[in-house]
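Extended Data, panel c. Modelled sequence:
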Amino acid sequence: MRTIYSLPPTQYGALWAIVVVVLSALIIGWLIALPILTRKRVNKQFGLVDSTTRATLSADQALRERYKARIRALADKRTDGEIDDRELHQGLSVVVREFVTERLGVRAETMTLTDLLANQRTAPVAYVIERCYNPAFSREGEILAMPGENDPRLVTIVDALKVVDSL
């Protein structure tokens, strides 16, 4: 018969348990402090913004200016007689939908008027698109003037410019 010798379990000192607890606390503290210590700060008291915010603001403004220039170019073409009301309103619809797609990341080119109204982010655009429907799709291609409007074409252009400014 064989004799099996068993050794008593090795006892670790209390120092090792303290080291593990302290190291765990340091790691957790570091994980919490890292995002706080490395974030970019905005000084609201003096109106200063960090470079990321400034770049975003200038990119948004450049996008708006680009689309407002396209709207004005369409208006100038209509004034010069290069395009008629139907082409003006079809162009306005395309430009405004492209702006919404680029600005909000919503596929506005394929959305119906009902879809635009249902989405709260695109609802302001729906009014301009609705004004473009009649001249763009009617047989006569004429703009329906609302009561009190002298030039409904101008109102649609101004509304399109407002949408680009507001989104």
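Residues 15 and 33 are 27 Å apart (CA to CA). This feature is highlighted in the accompanying rendering.
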